[in-house]
Amino acid sequence: MATTDLEAAQPAQSTQTTRPAQPAQYVQPVREVSASGASRFAAELLAHADIRLNGTRPWDMRIHDPQVLERVVALGNLGLGEAYMDDQWDCDQLDEFFAHVLRAHVDEQIDPARLVFHALKARLMNRQTARRAWKVGQQHYDLGNAFYEAMLDKRMTYTCGYWSGGARTLDEAQEAKLDLICRKLGLKPGMRLLDIGCGWGSLMKFAAEHYGVSCVGVTISKEQAALGAERCEGLPVEFRLQDYRLLDEQFDRIASVGMFEHVGPKNYRTYMEVAHRCLADDGIFLLHTIGKNRRDTTPDPWVDKYIFPNGELPTIGQVADASGGLFVVEDLHNFGADYDRTLMAWHANFEAAWPRFAAEMGHRFYRMWRYYLLSCAGAFRARDIQLWQYVLSKRGLLGGYRRPQS
């Protein structure tokens, strides 16, 4: 499917906050699986991950509804996540549950037939067209600024912190990450920095305050742009509510932090071409993205439905394919293990702040968000997914590139 005309990039503006859909009537699996058969199958799979059904250890799975196992066998992680949201099962430490499951590759043993369409759609369709790109802004990032202010650090940085340099708190880890990016970019006073997918502007604000640069950031979230502009008042920082594909001006440096996951394989090359045309010939482009280990996997259907619609993680090979002939890879830094700690810090803040949001958002949202944060923490702990920072140049930096010390 071809990329949508960019003139149609912005849909009608809406302030409606998306809440998790109510559970649809449970559909029987394609093939009949008895409750006892599903229980045996699930118990055998989980045993490989050292997880017991109704066990007493923190990572064991406690069953509240016997139908949950049929639901999981039929629908994989979509069924597992929705069953958790519906209070059909529990676990004291979801992060450890998922770390065990993913290290043992249990998830690869369930490939339900009814999700084949989801896999085909991910492979064949362009799910991240200019029009569809706005869906994630409305569903995920526009939940409300107060919600994210309560969960994130003081700068509202919704990407992996950098703990490896000795940070002790979330605030310290996020400032360490922002400073590391600025040093990797070699920012100097008077430079112009483009931030593709700027969020609330934490990188631009930090770079303007500490490195004397002027910044332009693009985002697809109205709430992010509004609050970001307010937080950056008085600084040479500009927010633009637009699709990245519309960018066409030169910058000394470009950063994209936590945006590439929303671009999609059909658009990777276009994304790199946009960065290439906007970067000065002697400039540096830093790409910060979560990535997956294998190309032959499809987006998690639960995450796609409830958290990041149309999101998809790239592989090293896909980044190489997209950037080939456009950029030279000067440096590649993997600190994915730091995302585990970041997510656990977000979860602690979320739990502490939840009483303020419970009446508005409801119990099912609480279960959904908890599942999201802790399952992702478990995935990073298991090293099932990674966090990469690429430093890219157009022609290769004369004399080579040296990564700054942590």
From TrEMBL:
Alphabetical list of CDD domains matching this protein: AdoMet_MTases
Sequence ranges of Polar residues compositional bias: 11-20
Signal sequence coordinates: none
Biological process according to GO: lipid biosynthetic process; methylation
Keywords annotated in UniProt: Lipid metabolism, Methyltransferase, S-adenosyl-L-methionine, Transferase
UniProt-annotated stretches for the region Disordered: 1-25
Alphabetical list of InterPro entries matching this protein: CFA/CMAS, CMAS, SAM-dependent_MTases_sf
Enzyme kind, highest EC tier: transferase
Short name of one Pfam family: CMAS
Active site as annotated: 376
GO terms, molecular function: cyclopropane-fatty-acyl-phospholipid synthase activity
SUPFAM superfamilies with a match to the protein in the record: S-adenosyl-L-methionine-dependent methyltransferases (SSF53335)
This enzyme's EC code(s): 2.1.1.79
Similarity annotation: Belongs to the CFA/CMAS family.
Official protein name in the record: Cyclopropane-fatty-acyl-phospholipid synthase
Source organism per UniProt: Paraburkholderia caffeinitolerans
